[in-house]
Amino acid sequence: MRNQPKYNFFKNTSYAIKGLKDLVESETSFKIELFVVIALLPVVFFIDVSLTNKLLMFITLFGMLIAEAINSAIERVVDLVTLEHHPLAGRAKDIGSSVVFLSISVFVITWTFILWETL
What we know:
single chain; mainly alpha; Helix Hairpins; 4 helices; about 85% helix; about 0% strand
């Protein structure tokens, strides 16, 4: 059995907000992607497309932020374990980066098709 405190919604929410604050303060890639999300979020609400397409646009937009957060967590854990170059550490970081790349690719492809269909 794990030595873990009971679930507390407010405490867990504060941990999540603390993590988001840390991402914004320390991760340049996250800041760039957050700027893209803030800039494009109004498009989702004002574009004349179906609700399904709006949801796809919204999900792929926030998927980039989620992927970047996961990548940052992987990088920090790897750096915690070793700061020396190790092939497995490099592979773990590369895979984390590929998650971000794939999420951006899905975002670009989805938005391109939806916007192309709209015009």
